[in-house]
Amino acid sequence: MDMTPTQSATAVSDVLRRLTVVFTDFEQRLSATPLIRRLTRGRFTDADYRAFLIGLRQQVKDGALWMSRAASNINDDQLELRSKLMRHAVTEHRDFRLLEANYVAVGGALAEIRDAEKNIGSEALSAWMFHEASKPDPYGLLGAMWIIEGLGNIKAGEWGRLVQQRLDLPDEAVSFLLYHGENDAEHMAEFEQMLGLVLPDEAVARRIVRTAEVTARLYALQIEEMTA
């Protein structure tokens, strides 16, 4: 069924409201993890930051890969959405190199971050993302993108500045966090455009919200498992 612009805009607003509730719970879970508690309470160390960078590097490297897989599984009726996902994957496919550079800048060896295993949360998150991306028309992954891009937009800059203050680091040691804090707002605007391409469809809306809920829980577990 063809949708009118009004129907689409109303459906997007409703899904964004539901996703905001999910993200608020996600923020609370993150703030309770040991690593983020140490950061916000002034007990963060160089070793904590290196553990954080190691944990993020594996997940960020996978990000462009699952987005590319998701794009390849979108039908020909949604070429615009496919194109947006592919462009997004290209934009971010080298971001893990920033994490490697930050790790070296804070005293780590490049081989350590490249050879490190995923923690339990990262393993679960990666498996979930690739599982969802492998489905036909994996529109639910828009909910996962809301969580991940929202984290960059809302928390990355704040965390980057805190890390910089706590550890007295130069910009080049926190470039990943500062970059995403400055640039992910644009990605969130693009996300709303992608929502408009698949809504209104209540089944799709429910899947987007549910995927956001699972992604948020697994992402929080990833942070929880980051230990120095």
Structure summary:
With 228 residues, this protein is mainly α. The protein has helices at 5-31, 34-40, 46-72, 79-92, 95-105, 110-115, 120-133, 141-167, 175-198, 202-224. The mean pLDDT is 93.
Task: Describe the protein in words.
With 228 residues, the chain is an all-alpha fold. It has a single domain, classed as Heme Oxygenase, Chain A (Up-down Bundle). 79% of the residues lie in helices and 0% in strands. It contains 10 helices and no strands. It has helices at 5-31, 34-40, 46-72, 79-92, 95-105, 110-115, 120-133, 141-167, 175-198, 202-224. Helix 1 (5-31) packs across helix 8, helix 1 (5-31) runs parallel beside helix 10 and helix 3 (46-72) runs parallel beside helix 7. 43% of the residues are buried. The model has no long low-confidence stretch (mean pLDDT 93).
Could you give the topology of this structure?
Elements: H1 5-31, H2 34-40, H3 46-72, H4 79-92, H5 95-105, H6 110-115, H7 120-133, H8 141-167, H9 175-198, H10 202-224
Helix pairs in contact: 1-8, 1-9, 1-10, 3-4, 3-5, 3-7, 4-9, 7-10, 8-9, 8-10
Q: Compute the average pLDDT.
A: 93
Estimated share of beta-strand residues: under 5%
What is the CATH superfamily classification?
Answer: Heme oxygenase-like
Order of helices and strands: HHHHHHHHHH
Estimated helix fraction: over 70%
The 3D shape can be described as globular
Biggest sheet details: none
Q: What is the correct CATH architecture? A: Up-down Bundle
Classification by helices and strands = mainly alpha
The CATH topology assignment is Heme Oxygenase, Chain A
Rg over CA atoms: 18 Å
Distance between the termini: 53 Å
Number of domains: 1
Low-confidence stretches: none
What's the assembly state of these chains? Answer: single chain
Number of strands: 0
Question: What is the CATH level 1 assignment?
Answer: Mainly Alpha
Total of DSSP H or I helical runs spanning 4+ residues: 10
